[in-house]
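Quick start: read one record
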Amino acid sequence: MKNHLHTPQEIRNQIWKELVRATQDRHHAWRTPVLATSSDNGLVNARTVVLREVDVVQSNLVIYTDERSSKVSEIMKQQAGLFVFWSSRLNWQLRVRVNITASKSGTDVEQRWQRVSQSATANDYLGQDAPGTVRREAGNETMAISHKNYFTVLNAEVTGMDWLELGRDGHRRARILTESWEWLTP
């Protein structure tokens, strides 16, 4: 992969190709990036998420979450976020600046929920207790299931990327915006 991508357009195309591949390949390193948002107390809050969908044309990344999770309340107050992807196969780090919106209802959300509700991950969105709730007992006991689903879709509109390639013959770095490209000092 390295060293045969020379032009900004070749690199940009490969980045989007890898992002799409990550939604289809459970073993792709970019399937589980870190998402950072601003916490309620003004500090940074970061967590690993699962990349579910990529829309190259709209420059949009999609993840699913429980509407009661802290990330949703943080996004409601501050839509800016940052994804960090790392691939040891590519020797690439990709930081993606995004504006995130949370959707809890609507046709798109319902269609996605119909697919998710048939999978083993459905219980992630049906728990009576919100994510991060203090438990009385330790362990992996079965959680109580609610009759309501708390499934929420986070749509992250890409506003910019910072791409870094590590290489034996030198590193390369670039800032990628919608219509522009800047080479940066690694």
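The chain has one domain: 8-111+150-184.
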